[in-house]
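Protein data:
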Amino acid sequence: MQIDLSKIVDQGLGLAMNYIPMVALAILTLIIGNKVIKWLVARIGRIMDRTETDESLSKFLMSLLGIGLKIMLILSVAAMFGINTTAFIAIFSALMVGVGMALNGTIGHFASGVMLLIFKPFKVGDLVTIGVGRTGTVEAINAFNTTLKTLDNQRIIIGNSNVTGNDVINISGQEIVGVELDYGIGYDDDIDRAKKIILEVGEACPYILKDPSQGVVVSSLGDSAVVLSTRPFCKSEHFWDTKFYMQEHVKKAFDKQDIGIPYNTLDIKMINN
């Protein structure tokens, strides 16, 4: 069997002449399309900067927009070669559904991260309490988790869905914060003198603000103590300083003025048979 090389060459040249312009147009489309996408994303980023959009949120949205536009560009180029993009989209969607089911928890964390960036119940640098016993300064709000830095320099990493699914107390997000403090005194002690001591310690504290003014009230009558409550206000960054100062100096002042702080005791009676 004799192979007609000239016929094969002619067919090859014909195919090349047909596809070279298409390939060149596809390459040109990709190059121009990428430049247009970069320009558009940068333009939207500048608009977000002018409107003072949160930096974390703007970066996330620009990244999402860039990925979406690039996928559309690739599908457009594929359609130029006659590829059935409808079938491709259907396969891609089915694949994403399967991946989504496998990564259900991870996607939940991601969606919660988006909610945190949009609604902003707190920001980086805020002192917060999340759930029970998780108090610290917000160090980072990532796509899948939030990081808190505690007073003793530990880091608590909490999944974002656990953040949105728990009660969140933003202690310092308002710039000025009240510090809740309770002091128990004995029933035989002078209430007015104890209240005066607490106020004097508050006046001496360098972190407590004059306005709003500090007050002291009898909040409850316990089994073994009269509980006095006060809520001095300070700047949010001085929350711990204020709390620790008041705790130490009120105790010292009570000791000097013979004001007792009751504590639980256990009486044991021995019965000889």
Observations:
- The CA atoms of residues 115 and 164 lie 8 Å apart.
- The mean pLDDT is 80.
- The first helix runs from residue 5 to 50.
